[in-house]
Each structure stands twice: as structure tokens, then as C-alpha cells.
Design a protein that fits this description.
By secondary structure, this protein is mostly helical. The chain is built from 14 helices and 2 strands. The longest helix has 38 residues. The chain is globular.
Length: 340
Amino acid sequence: MTASSQLSQLAGEWRTARLLYPLYSALAREFVIEFPPCADLEAGVEAPPQESVEHARQWLVDMDERIQVHQLRQFLQTTTLVGDDALCILLLHHLRKPKRTDSDRDKLDFLLVQYFSHAAPSRLEEGDLDLEYVAQVLEPVLGATPMAIPAWLSPLDELVQAVNRARTLNELLTSGLLDKGRKLKHSSGANYFLPVSMIAFTRFNFLMRRVFFRLMHQDLNAILDGLRDLEQKGVTSLDCRRAQFSADEPTVRLRMICQSWKVMFHAEYSSGQPLRMLVDLRAVVDAGLARAARGPAKSTAAAPRAQAAAAGAKSGVSPSDAPEFEVLTGTSDPGNDGQV
């Protein structure tokens, strides 16, 4: 490499580091990741010496090791700092790493489907989502890729077909299909980082995400409709211990929680505790509707609590004991980052 090309490469690396630095700093603040700032990046130095570029490079490496995939996912889904250009730079940063860990794979898995979701038309029909189309959308980051799909990736299409047959979220979560997809990705090893593999998994993740959102919102709407029907029959509380709530949970509060879940689940999916609670809450509401259909409902002692909760809702006060949720990591998450 000539001295001129080396200088050009260092200058490009520095520009990338300067673009990434505000995102990483904001992410560190949000998740209280304690790590000293990079002085030259913090100061916004325009033309640093080579030592500063190397220090910035190592700073990004150290930060990547500290940032967990669920933190990156949650940050990108809630911040206004990351537009399409920043997302592309972040994706390219991970794609260009000379050494990749399992965590890097999981971050790439999420970043690729996030990039595709931003770049693809919002009303894209499933029939148009073939591998050639996905490869075309990802070409700016992966380059031109011949579509010769290896045999070990063939189960992905079978899994998509099986997932599409799921009628409820509970059926999907208990089917084992998410685990099969995750195991295929994890067992791929270094083959995952082949462009054709990343294209295939991006398509699969995107289709899975669509099914997941459809079933989640189907359950949420069924719960909200069921709560309305129960209240019209005089039922003001339910025994929700099965869904990890109280034995005398006001329907008003349940409706408020479901509305907050709609916002939370709009971002991404996880098969951890929040979705299990959603599935169990639908079972509780369905059971309440079945009981109400068998005979006249009795008013419950929770009516004063329900009225107080309703008053709080009208005044804009949120229930102080509403459960907090996070997107889970590890084996309980179907993609460790929003995908399988």
C-alpha cells in the first residue's frame, strides 16, 4: 500500500469513527456503559495523527465488546439519532470487521433486517420477496451477489411456510419453529458471513417479523375487544395470576397495559416474558368471556379500584405499579436481536 493510499484509508476510517461516535456515546449513556470517552473524537479533531486514528479504532472495538445485542436493538428502535445513512454506516462498520464473534453475528443479523426494512417499500407483497429482490436491496452494503443457495439453507423456506400456518401467537411460540431457525443460524458458523447466507437469513427474518407482528396485534386486539365485551356485561376485574398480574386485576388497568404493549411490540419481537404474558392474558380474557356467556355476570369488589384507575387515566397519570419490560436476550429471544 502506498503512503497516499494509506493516508486516504486512515482519513476514511476517521470519518466513519466520527460519525459513529455520537451514536455510541448516546448508547453508552442510555445503558450506563461506563467507559472513558475517546478524547480526539470527543474534541472533533479534523485531521488527527495516525495514533489518534488507531486509538479511535480500538475505542470502537472495546465499545462493541461492551454493547449487548439487545441494547443495540432497543437503542435503534427508540432513538431519533439513527437515520438511514447512520444505519448504513453502522452496518458497514460491522460488516468490515476482520474478526467476528457470535455477538457480531447477532448484531449483523439484526442490522441487516433493519436496513432491509428501511429500504424496502412498506407495502411489499410476500410474493415479491424472493432472494433476488433481497439481494438487490442489500447490494449497497453486501455488493453484487450470485444467488447460488447452498443446500444447508434450504430449511429456511420450509420454516417460513410452517410459521405462516400458525393461527395464534401461542401456537407460534410453542411450535419450536423459532428454535429451529435460531439453531440453523447458530450452527452455520463462519458460513453465516457469506453474502448469500446473510441475504437468505435477512429474507427469512423479515418474513418472520411480519408473521410475528400480525399475530401479536391479533392477540392484542382480541384482548382489548374481549375486555370491552366483559365490561359491557358488568365484569370489572379478572383473576390474572396466570399472566403474572393480580388475582383481582381491574379491566381498566389491563386495557391501559395492552395499549402500552402495542407501543412496545411495535418495535421488535421477543419470545421472552412479555410475549408469554400477552399469550396468558388472552387466555384469561377468553376464559372470562366463556364464563360470562354461561350466565349473568356479578359485579366485583374491584369496581372502586377500576374507577380510580379510570380517573387516573383521564388525568394523564400512569399506574405507578405497571410492569416494566425489556427485550430479552439469550435463548429466550428468537433471534437474540429480533430475529431467529
